[in-house]
Amino acid sequence: MNTTTTMEQHDINETYRMIKYLNIDVIEDKRNGFINVSKICKQFGKMLKNYNSLESSKKYMLYKSAVAGKTATALSYELCGGLTEFRQQLKGTYVHKDIAVHVAMWCDPVFGDKVSKIINEYIQNENKQLKIENKKLMLCNEIQQKIIQKREIYTTSLEYKLDVFREEQRIRDEEMKQRDEEMKQRDEEMKQRVDALINTNDALINMNVEQTELLHDIRQDVALTNEIIQDVHEQIVAPNENNRLTEKLVLLSHTTQPNKYTVIRTQERNERTAITRKQRQYNNQLRVIMCIDTYMNPKNLYNRFKEHMQRTPELKPFVRFIYNDFEIIEGTTLSNDDLVQLFQTIEQQSSEPLTTAPITIQK
């Protein structure tokens, strides 16, 4: 796939230009193709001096020097900043493009690989353009020679002038035809690039959606597993008289979805840890609206609350329970204060069987 369509570039001045790729700014010296690697390292939170201190980096610099037949200092230069913001933007260490790819690999292997592909493609395009220019130059030289020859033959005749005109017209027609063919070819290449990018983007979007859904399912499974483990633990380890009054039932609402609630059943000594763990599970989007000491087992209190909600005709259609989470569906005026009052009323009746009549909430 051709990658240049994902790259934006503009000239900073007659010597330097800015290339933006994958949200990374790359500054290039147009005179020699050297790249400002200080800027690249900074954007990845790294320092160039750490790269230079690596043995592998030193060996690579020696290797490139030997291949290029130049000293290591000839493959890089330092541009100092000045007082102006413009000079500050350009300052840094500029190195040969091959070394820049090596530094980019060190900063981020994925980004470095893409940069390598871009540079290779850029070189190929430059070579291709150079061949086209050379071909045009050769054609112009050939035409010039032909014209000179014809001028020598038909120096003073009208036929000479006519032949020159016809030859020039033929050349213009050929050049126009060649430009049209090149334009068609570039349009086709551009269309193929756009199609490839669209396909790749669609694939990445689908992959991201699948991974997001999978992560959500895993989080739900972990949350449900933790709740089940807690339920089993509460069933196996029955509270005794010494710790019964330390049992806590905490009610939390979701800040982004106020109609959704989460219940925590814990002991007082573990209350803060339990709330913190639940906050991490929901990305700190929970708010405590009630914390009640319960004489009965918190699970018993929560079960009595669910039983009441499901046995009350005017409330049952508007509530949905999923283990220790429940949601109040639109269509009822039940508020946070109503829920708190209902929990407190059920707790006060803990020593008695749950009444068959719905509990009245005082307004």
TrEMBL record:
One Pfam family name from the record?
A: KilA-N
Gene Ontology MF term list = DNA binding
What SUPFAM superfamilies does this protein's entry cite?
DNA-binding domain of Mlu1-box binding protein MBP1
The residues covered by the KilA-N domain are 15-122
According to UniProt, the name of this protein is KilA-N domain-containing protein
